[in-house]
Amino acid sequence: MNNVTNAKISIVVIDDSDFTRKNLVHFLKSKNYNVTADFNHARPALEYLAANNTQIALVDVVMPEISGIELTQKISQNLGRTKVIMMSSLAQERIILEAIAAGAQDFLQKPINELHLDDSIQRIAHAESA
To answer: Model's pTM, two decimal places?
Structure first.
């Protein structure tokens, strides 16, 4: 396994829940991940991702205007360098399958288990660097 330090892994958090978004950012920073931005809407997040080289986007499924599934499709189709980890409290099989079909690399159920999140990020980052 290649050694990728957490500080070299750039992450953007996209979730319309201020509480969830702030907790995720706090956790990721405590693990020394490079959290470059966080957004509560998909549109500005998509603009940011198009302009910045970001390795991983954490995307909530349910968001206003553009759903997380739609956002993931746009990222996968246009910004293949950015890998998506989808998150939702709705862990129904249909939603998980939609997320994977849209291009998500992983799906995590809310409330987010920090160990699972860390494992998912590490797995994706190491696969990218291999």
So the answer is: 0.93
Between helices 93-102 and 68-78, what is the axis angle to 10°? 20
Residues 10 and 38: beta-carbon distance below 8 Å: no
Distance CA 84, CA 72 (A): 7
Long-range interactions of 77-81: CB distance < 8 A, separation 24+: 77/103, 78/50, 79/49, 79/50, 81/53, 81/54, 81/55
Name the band, by pLDDT with cuts 50, 70 and 90, for residue 91.
confident
Q: Which domains can be identified in the chain, with CATH numbers?
A: 6-129 (3.40.50.2300)
Average pLDDT, rounded, for the chain: 93
Residue 92 has a pLDDT of: 87
Amino acid at 90: L
Query: What sign has the CA pseudo-torsion 61, 88, 91, 76?
Result: positive
Q: Which pLDDT score, from 0 to 100, does residue 5 have? A: 87
Structure tokens at 29: 């920073």
Q: Distance between CA 6 and CA 125 in Å, rounded?
A: 9
